[in-house]
Input
Amino acid sequence: MKRNRIFAVIILIIFLVSGIYLLKTKKTETDLTPDWKTYIVPHKGYQIKYPEDWKLDTSSDALWSQDLSPVDRAPSFTLSKKDYSMTFKFPDAFAPGMCIFPDNPDFTKPLSDDSSFLNIYKCSEYTEVKGNYGAMYRRIIVKPSKSDLTVFSVYTKTNDKWVTIPVINYYLLTKPDNTDILIQMDKILSTFKFTN
Output
C-alpha cells in the first residue's frame, strides 16, 4: 500500500513538472514579438511581424496589376533599418532558384549541364532559421562584401526541396560581422507566414 502511494506521488510530481514546463514553453513562444507591428496582405495571403524601429515600404506591393508581366506585377515589400533591408517578392510566374545542401544525398552527385539555367546550385555554408509557424529557412551569402554591400538569399523548405519561394533577400551595407542585426533579421523572417 505504501508503495502505491509513493508511486502515485511520483506520477503526480512528473505531471506537475511537465505541465509547468509546457506552460512556460508555450508562453515563451507566444511572447517573442508582442510589441511588433504586423503587416498583412490578404489578397496574396501572407503576413509578417517587424519591430517598431524598422520601416515598411509597400510601394511596390501596390503595383499588382494584370496589365504588367508576371514578374513586374509581383507584389513585394521591403523592411529596412538604417543600412540594412529585407525584400520579399511574390512573382506569379518565374523559375525559382533551388539549392542542394550537404544533408541531401544528391549533394555529392555532379550537377547537370543545364543546372545553372534551371537555377539549381549547391550550397555548403548556410544559416538555418526556424519559422514560428513550422516553416524552415536557410540563409546563404550570395554576394560577399568585397565592396560595401553584402547580399544574402533565403531558401524555404518546400516538399523536401530548398527553393526561393517567395524570393527573400537580406541587404547589408556593411560587412556581415554585425551578428546582432542578422539575428534580428532572422527573427523577423521567422514571423513570416502564409495565411491561406
The chain has two helices and twelve strands. The longest helix spans residues 2-30.
